[in-house]
Design a protein that fits this description.
The protein is of the alpha/beta class. It has one domain: Rossmann fold (3-Layer(aba) Sandwich), CATH 3.40.50. The chain is 27% helix and 33% strand. Strands 2-1-3-4-13-12-11-8-9 form a nine-stranded mixed sheet, with helices on both faces. It has a four-stranded mixed sheet with strand order 6-5-7-10, with helices on one face. The longest helix has 16 residues. It is globular and about 45 Å long. The chain starts with a strand and ends with a helix. 43% of the residues are buried.
Length: 202
Amino acid sequence: MITVIDYSVGNIRSVCNALDNIGCENRLSNLSDDIKNADGIILPGVAAFGYAMKALGEECGELLKEEAAKGKPLMGICSGYQVLFDSSTELGFNEGLGMINGAVERLPEGLVIPHMGWNQVRINPEIPLFDGLAEEEYFYFAHSYYAILTDPQAKSAMTEYGETDVLACVQKENIFGLQFHPEKSSRLGMKVLKNFEKICRR
């Protein structure tokens, strides 16, 4: 069972629908028992960083960190991925969950913002979310801020927007993050979600 965190931020239901489509048992909840009893956790979201942190709440945020520290697979998507980092400058300075070292900043001047649409990701075969995928695949992005990774323990996969390398996926042990939207990325996105389900079953 995968628990999708319900904190009223953006695309939550579409993630559940995608999991339903691949036959993955899931529940939408922010109850502590549902989080503790889950085989894995997905933190979705489409919102400004500070709003996402406020909506998540300190209690739920601490519980997510506790469960991840026990080795439970946790995957953040879009703003749910960005809040895994230390901080963001979006709408002022905001602290994140600090589960992965790095900061979230606005995409550089001169680029069309938001970065929206399909873009090619350079697949890192060491990240199990990409098992069975080719070296370069296209996924759907929609964001104005991007994470700058400073964590030496983390693995990464990149995309290029203009002349800027953008972190598309990160893994730190059992913690995963996706800047792109797997639930909007057709067959390949479903493959990524299926791979996460497999990770949760190990």
